[in-house]
């Protein structure tokens, strides 16, 4: 921050002078931003000193010998209780009274919320300003009762004779009496009159009025120690603590104002987490529920170890529980629950993790069990046979201490070698100088990777076993039924696995101290932070302060990772004094987002004409590929279940039954059916009219003739099972027979028999639901001329499902010559084609392309037929999107030379691309599955152009740094105070206080909400250490 820029400018100074005294005094607003009548300030002073007056009455009666001390407390508490109810019900009456309050016009935005018009000293508007009151009646009663109890105990706590007995000084008594009552008045005022804006905040909104309880809560803690001292005489520790707290009591207002003491809603959770982390060897957790669970389990471990009568039992119990509690129990519970669900379902669901993850998880379980057994054997045998020994230069524990020291030094050296800077000052000569590309960086980092593997083995396997051996030989374990031993060793045996690096440091320090002073009565429990690793967040709008600090971050990383090859081998860190220290660079998979304008491509007449021909080819390729995969599934199931019974062949589920209706044969379709489907790009999805009978394929029930080539999809109840038997792969079908009266359908049986000419054609046969007819004969004849037979023959010859058979080429040739199979494909492909373009067969417009890409098709009889077959509809839509991508690639990269190149292109779309909509769930799934490329078509209404969005997966080097621990904690600790006073409601908060050396702006925004900005991240990830 520049010395010319003040910390508080003029308007902030005025705000500070209003807000800070209010926070210190607990709520009285003794300075307003406008001219207020004197009685406003006088009333606040009277309300503030009221507890002192009521307590002073009882104190005077006690000093005069009229009342005993406890009667004095009861009298003062009763008077305060009555006064508190009067104050609260006066506020309630004023709020219920209808009063018109005129607001004063002002040009000062900062003071606008504070200005009121007052008419009288005891008017309703004055009372509502002085005593806002409580939101809930229950809090009105509870806070009033608490105020009476606070005043009664406070009077007893601050009796002059009592203070004189503690210190034996009249001057000290007067000082503690005056400022002690000031503290008590501050607590009473915030409880029953008006609550100040507290510096320490935990919740963004005080829904249940917990903030008024903060100051009384801490006051009651001081009272509790004094009461314990009164009733537990001859306890020197309590007397010394009571003397100390009486002095600290008068400094409570400043501790509250500076935000040193946490609010009550965070106090217990925070204290519980600190005890869990520093007292019981645990770690921070993400939820309150999990915090409670881990705290009680960890505390129960320490309590249980206290009552175990055997030292061997204590060691084994602490070792086993320490290892188990160090594991990610939430992840283990989730995997166990997942396995139970899998066992009950009996099959793998798409929503469950894949089988490889399950197998790896069981390997991890097995590894943990082996480590646990080895740890128990080591500690049990060493503790039983080696026995206890005082620390000496040749004792077993001393030898293990030397080993741990050497191990600590080796790990520390290996850790420094992994960083770009050694000690944060000298550049590591083994670290790659230029880290611009991922491939080159990984090649140069091979040696460092090997060193990292060695360090990981030493840290995660060797060090824990060495430390539990050291702990099991400690003579302090002889002192059974000791609180210090139970807590200390519970923490130690858990930290060995929970935080190995810190545990190794602590064990080395303890071993060194034991060897130096030859005493086993000292046990140090220290926890040293190794730095806070942050993901820095930014405001939604970048300002000049961000630019200054972000530029400095770039300079720090560039000087560390982007050096010329001829640079000095061991250079000095130019930014050594910066709060940010570069550590390393890691390759991370990221998606690049490119958005292109498709003008000149999607609106080209030539491209759109080629689009129609390409669509037929893509439809043929997709349907043939689908049927070939379907036949492969049949063969696999047949091989598994071929045990003398009819084998079931599992097929892709089909949600619709075969149709049994056929319309009249007409020569043409009325074009008026398409009138409601306009070319408006952003129009609503058209309403599909259904006014005609559908010309469908009829499969008569009860007929089961042995005609090769037909596949039956059996039904169970109302659901298609998608399974057929091996003996029912032949079925009689009827294609395009005349109209049948619905009432006489059961009596009609027109069955023209059409037999496949090749016995293998059934392997590529379409599902029977797709063979039904919906178009007139004239359209059926027109379809045949558009079908690319040469492309159809080529696609069949490229299939891989026949390569495993003998005479595969002969089989493919026979299938390709099968006219019946080809007619089925002609029918299915061209029906989908007319469904996508309409029956007029005109060149589509760009708006038409966009609508169909989004799944909005023009209505026609063919569309009704297609929408009744959801799986075929999705395949047709997929083919349409592939064709669009093909058109864009041909316009950008050049035409497709031959069928082989076209096949390679479609195979690449199938394996490496997801072509769809950004709003689809499958788009998210493709990102999670790390698809190499994703494509989506869009439209920019502001520019009036069609756009294409391409996500490309690539590996980039992400530079990682470490922020100085104390610098970050210092800024965060001061954050709330600065938000309230140094910056108040400035829109660009912390812009003036930006500091490139401390990265103050970025660090402050990375604090937890509500003080900082939220950082959006994924759910916690489970990272295996072994």
UniProtKB/TrEMBL annotation:
<protein>
    <recommendedName>
        <fullName>Pecanex-like protein</fullName>
    </recommendedName>
</protein>
<feature type="transmembrane region" description="Helical">
    <location>
        <begin position="244"/>
        <end position="268"/>
    </location>
</feature>
<feature type="domain" description="Pecanex C-terminal">
    <location>
        <begin position="864"/>
        <end position="1018"/>
    </location>
</feature>
<feature type="transmembrane region" description="Helical">
    <location>
        <begin position="39"/>
        <end position="64"/>
    </location>
</feature>
<feature type="transmembrane region" description="Helical">
    <location>
        <begin position="398"/>
        <end position="414"/>
    </location>
</feature>
<dbReference type="InterPro" id="IPR039797">
    <property type="entry name" value="Pecanex"/>
</dbReference>
<feature type="transmembrane region" description="Helical">
    <location>
        <begin position="453"/>
        <end position="473"/>
    </location>
</feature>
<feature type="transmembrane region" description="Helical">
    <location>
        <begin position="213"/>
        <end position="232"/>
    </location>
</feature>
<feature type="transmembrane region" description="Helical">
    <location>
        <begin position="365"/>
        <end position="386"/>
    </location>
</feature>
<keyword id="KW-0812">Transmembrane</keyword>
<dbReference type="GO" id="GO:0016020">
    <property type="term" value="C:membrane"/>
</dbReference>
<feature type="transmembrane region" description="Helical">
    <location>
        <begin position="165"/>
        <end position="192"/>
    </location>
</feature>
<feature type="compositionally biased region" description="Acidic residues">
    <location>
        <begin position="662"/>
        <end position="682"/>
    </location>
</feature>
<feature type="transmembrane region" description="Helical">
    <location>
        <begin position="314"/>
        <end position="336"/>
    </location>
</feature>
<keyword id="KW-0472">Membrane</keyword>
<comment type="similarity">
    <text>Belongs to the pecanex family.</text>
</comment>
<dbReference type="InterPro" id="IPR007735">
    <property type="entry name" value="Pecanex_C"/>
</dbReference>
<feature type="region of interest" description="Disordered">
    <location>
        <begin position="655"/>
        <end position="682"/>
    </location>
</feature>
<feature type="transmembrane region" description="Helical">
    <location>
        <begin position="70"/>
        <end position="94"/>
    </location>
</feature>
<keyword id="KW-1133">Transmembrane helix</keyword>
<feature type="transmembrane region" description="Helical">
    <location>
        <begin position="136"/>
        <end position="159"/>
    </location>
</feature>
<dbReference type="Pfam" id="PF05041">
    <property type="entry name" value="Pecanex_C"/>
</dbReference>
């Amino acid at each position: 921050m520049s010395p010319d820029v003040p910390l508080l400018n003029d308007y902030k100074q005025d705000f500070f002078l209003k807000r800070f005294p209010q926070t210190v005094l607990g709520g009285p607003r003794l300075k307003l931003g406008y001219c207020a009548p004197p009685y406003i300030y006088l009333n606040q002073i009277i309300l503030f000193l009221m507890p002192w007056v009521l307590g002073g009455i009882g104190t005077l009666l006690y000093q005069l010998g009229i009342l005993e001390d406890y009667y004095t407390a009861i009298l003062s508490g009763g008077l305060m209780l009555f006064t508190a109810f009067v104050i609260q019900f006066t506020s309630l009456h004023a709020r219920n009274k209808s009063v018109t309050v005129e607001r004063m016009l002002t040009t000062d935005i900062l003071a606008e919320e504070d200005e009121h018009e007052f008419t009288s000293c005891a008017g309703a508007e004055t009372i509502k300003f002085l005593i806002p009151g409580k939101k809930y009646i229950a809090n009105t009663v509870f806070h009033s009762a608490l105020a009476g109890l606070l005043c009664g105990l406070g009077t007893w706590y601050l009796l002059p004779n009592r203070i004189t007995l503690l210190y034996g000084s009249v001057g000290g008594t007067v000082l503690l009496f005056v400022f002690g009552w000031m503290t008590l008045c501050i607590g009473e005022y915030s409880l029953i009159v008006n609550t100040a804006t507290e510096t320490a905040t935990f919740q963004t909104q005080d829904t249940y009025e917990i903030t008024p309880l903060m100051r009384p809560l801490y006051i009651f803690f001081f009272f509790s120690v004094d009461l314990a001292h009164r009733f537990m005489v001859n306890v020197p520790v309590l007397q010394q603590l009571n003397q100390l707290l009486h002095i600290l009591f008068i400094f409570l207002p400043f501790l509250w104002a500076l935000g040193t003491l946490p609010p009550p809603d965070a106090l217990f959770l925070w204290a519980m987490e600190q005890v869990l982390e520093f007292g019981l060897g645990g770690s921070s957790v993400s939820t309150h529920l999990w915090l409670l669970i881990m705290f009680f389990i960890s505390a129960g471990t320490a309590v249980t170890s206290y009552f175990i009568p055997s030292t061997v039992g204590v060691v084994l119990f602490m070792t086993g529980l320490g290892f188990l509690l160090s594991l990610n129990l939430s992840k283990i519970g989730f995997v166990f629950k997942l396995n139970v669900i899998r066992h009950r379902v009996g099959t793998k669901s798409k929503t469950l993790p894949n089988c490889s993850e399950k197998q790896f998880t069981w390997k991890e379980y097995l590894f943990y069990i082996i480590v646990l057994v080895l740890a128990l054997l080591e500690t049990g045998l060493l503790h039983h046979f080696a026995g206890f020994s005082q620390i000496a230069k040749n004792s077993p524990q001393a030898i293990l201490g030397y080993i741990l020291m050497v191990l600590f030094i080796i790990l520390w050296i290996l850790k420094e070698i992994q960083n770009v800077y050694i000690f944060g000052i000298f550049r590591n000569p083994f670290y790659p100088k230029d880290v611009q590309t991922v491939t080159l960086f990984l090649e140069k980092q091979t040696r460092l990777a090997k060193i990292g593997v060695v360090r990981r083995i030493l840290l995660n396997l060797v060090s824990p076993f060495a430390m539990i051996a050291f702990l099991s030989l400690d003579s302090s374990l002889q002192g059974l039924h000791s609180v210090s031993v139970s807590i200390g060793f519970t923490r130690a045996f858990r930290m060995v696995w929970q935080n190995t690096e810190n545990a190794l440091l602590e064990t080395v320090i303890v071993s060194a101290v034991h060897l130096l002073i030859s005493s086993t009565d000292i046990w140090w429990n220290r926890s040293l932070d190794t730095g806070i690793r942050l993901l820095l967040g930014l405001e939604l709008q970048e300002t000049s302060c961000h630019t200054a600090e972000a530029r400095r971050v770039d300079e720090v990383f560039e000087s560390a990772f982007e050096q010329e090859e001829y640079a000095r081998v061991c250079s000095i860190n130019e930014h050594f004094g910066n709060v940010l220290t570069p550590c390393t660079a890691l390759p991370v998979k990221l998606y690049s987002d490119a958005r292109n304008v498709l003008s000149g491509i999607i609106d080209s007449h030539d491209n759109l004409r080629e689009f129609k021909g390409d669509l037929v080819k893509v439809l043929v390729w997709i349907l043939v590929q689908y049927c070939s995969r379907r036949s492969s599934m049949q063969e696999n199931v047949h091989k598994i279940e071929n045990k003398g019974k009819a084998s079931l062949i599992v097929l892709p589920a089909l949600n619709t039954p075969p149709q049994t209706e056929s319309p009249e044969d007409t020569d043409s379709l009325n074009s008026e059916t398409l009138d409601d489907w306009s070319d408006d790009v952003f129009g609503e999805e058209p309403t599909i009219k259904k006014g005609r009978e559908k010309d469908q394929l009829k499969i008569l029930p009860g007929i089961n003739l042995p005609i090769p080539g037909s596949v039956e999809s059996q039904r169970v109840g109302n659901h298609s099972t998608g399974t057929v038997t091996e003996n029912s792969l032949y079925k009689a079908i009827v294609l395009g027979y005349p109209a049948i009266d619905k009432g006489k359908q059961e009596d009609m049986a027109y069955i023209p028999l059409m037999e496949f000419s090749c016995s293998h054609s059934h392997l590529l046969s379409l599902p029977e639901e797709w063979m039904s007819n919906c178009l007139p004969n004239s359209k059926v004849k027109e379809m045949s001329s558009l079908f690319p037979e040469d492309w159809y023959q080529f696609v069949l010859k490229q299939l891989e499902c026949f390569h495993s058979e003998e005479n595969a080429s002969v089989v493919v040739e026979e299938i390709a010559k099968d006219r019946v199979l080809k007619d089925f494909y002609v029918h299915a492909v061209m029906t989908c084609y007319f469904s996508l373009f309409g029956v007029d067969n005109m060149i589509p417009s760009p708006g038409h392309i966009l609508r169909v890409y989004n799944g909005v098709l023009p209505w026609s009889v063919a569309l009704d037929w297609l929408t009744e077959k959801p799986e075929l509809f999705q395949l047709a839509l997929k083919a349409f999107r592939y064709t669009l991508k093909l058109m864009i690639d041909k316009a950008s990269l050049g035409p497709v030379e031959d069928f082989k190149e076209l096949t390679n292109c479609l195979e690449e779309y199938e394996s490496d691309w997801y072509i769809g909509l950004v709003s689809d769930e499958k788009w998210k799934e493709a990102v999670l599955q790390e698809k190499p490329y994703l494509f989506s078509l869009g439209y920019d209404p502001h520019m009036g152009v069609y756009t294409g969005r391409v996500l490309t997966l690539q590996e980039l080097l992400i530079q990682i740094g470490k922020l100085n621990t104390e610098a970050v904690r210092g800024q965060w600790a001061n954050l709330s105070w600065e938000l309230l006073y140094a910056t108040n409601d400035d829109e660009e908060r912390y812009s003036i206080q930006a500091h490139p050396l401390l990265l103050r702006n970025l660090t402050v925004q990375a604090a937890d909400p509500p003080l900082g900005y939220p950082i959006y991240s994924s759910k916690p990830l489970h990272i295996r250490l072994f």
